[in-house]
Amino acid sequence: MIQAKELTENLDMFGCMQCGKCSAGCPESGKTDLNIRRIIRELTASSLCELKKTDPLWDCTSCSNCSLRCPRSLEPHELVIGLRGLLIEEGEIPPTARDALEGVFKHGNPWGRVRQKRVEWTEGLGIKNFSDAGENAALYYTCCAVYDPRIHNTARSIAIVLGAASDDFGILGVEESCCGSEMRRMGEAGLFEMIVEDNAKLFQDSGVKRIIAASPHCYDAIKNQYKIKDIAVRHYTQHMEELLNEGKIKLTKSLGKTVAYHDPCYLGKQNNVYDEPREILKAIPGINYIDFDRCREKSLCCGGGGGRMWLEGTGTGERLAQTRVKEAAEMDIDIIATACPFCLLTLEDAVKTTGFEEKILIKDISELIAEAL
User: Fold this and answer.
1) Strands of 361-364's sheet in order across
2) I want to staple 221 with a disulfide (CB 3.0 to 4.6 A). Which of 50, 114, 181, 187 is the partner?
3) Where does residue 276 fall: left (phi above 0), alpha (psi -120 to 50 degrees), or beta otherwise?
4) Which domain holds residue 159?
């Protein structure tokens, strides 16, 4: 049992009128045992604020759909995060989540890989360390997903495009640590606070004034949670759309593909970045761009956020990414483009498990830009 009275009061959950829009909008509704309306009702109806069933709390992807739909402007997804924190305090945490948290604490990344492997993707590119970059250089923040070999090409593509635009940038290399986004979403507030403190000091000591984030998760965390006033933070699609408009990126090769964009939740729903990625795709020669029916603020979550990259949920049915891939197949889409390493990995896995590996490609927008240079 979780005694969560203080948490419920602090998040003003007693203002909930049980309209059910949160549960109806939850992408996991009907797929898992997660029911945010029921959770709120159980917590507010009891004088002790005790939750009867805790397993579904780990099904939440923290996409924030429930909060966006709430007519009372409550934040149910933050309640789930807080409840997860109480579970962690009581030692009730899935082993895979515990491993991810320990990996960040010991090695600076949730995969628990040694720091030297963080820069394997840079081989042959001659990328500068930020300390050797120019005075006005931006920090290219690569994300822990760069430990995955598939994300190497995304990281390289971003660097290649920035280089083609003669944009001065550098990386922190082995000094770069996890941004802490998923640690906070899993409920480990103490670890997140430690990460913020360490990263903020590293940025300050390194003289960072601008950050270009490869991942929406890093972008969201540093921009909205770190609260560092003198550092400008942008997602790479925002920056590259500006470079295109300024004529600093020249796209000459025609790709000849039908492409739909999958909105990452942390970029779209949580930061209202919808237009820049689409404008980039429309500027690439030979691309026939179309939108999914469920797009922008109504976009379908990939299922990888909120720590779900390291968690197995209670559901046994079709995964969200598989649903998205089947939608693409029905629309005769050649490429699902995204701008998030988590979305890329979950969608690419879904292409394989649904049998569409020969029909549909999953590409990061940066990869498509690099191909069109």
Assistant:
1) 287-290, 257-261, 335-338, 361-364
2) 181
3) alpha
4) 96-243
